[in-house]
Amino acid sequence: MTKLESLALVPRDGAWGDWSSWTVCDKGCDVGKRKRHRFCDNPFPLHGGANCSEQQHETEDCNTQSCPKVISCRHLLQVGEETNHNYPDAVYKIYPIGSQPIMAYCDMSRDGGGWTLLVTSHTNSWTAQNVKLRNANSPKLTDDYSILQYANSIKDNIKVAGSTFEYRLEAQSRGRWGGIWKAPRGFTFTADNNKQTDIELVKKFDNWEYSDNGIEQRMPWISDARLTTSHDAQRNWWGTITADDMEYHPAPWINGHLKERQPSYIWYWMREGPLEIPSSCKEVYFRGLLTNPVSNGVFAIKPPGQHEVKTYCDFATEGGPWTLLVTSKTHSGWDKDSIKERNSKKPSLQDDYSILGLADAIKDSDKAQQEFFQYRIEADGNSRWGGIWEAPRNYTFLSTCDKQTKVKIVKKFDTWDENSNLGKRMPRLGLSNDLLLSSASTVDYSSGSLVYNSGASSASYLEQEKPKPNVVRYWMREGARLSCNDLKLHGVRAGIKYDDSFQLVKTSDTQYLPVYCDMTTAKGAFTLIVTSAHNSWTRAQVPHR
Question: What are the b/e assignments for 11-23, b being 16+ CB within 10 Å?
Answer without folding.
Answer: eeebeeeeeeeee
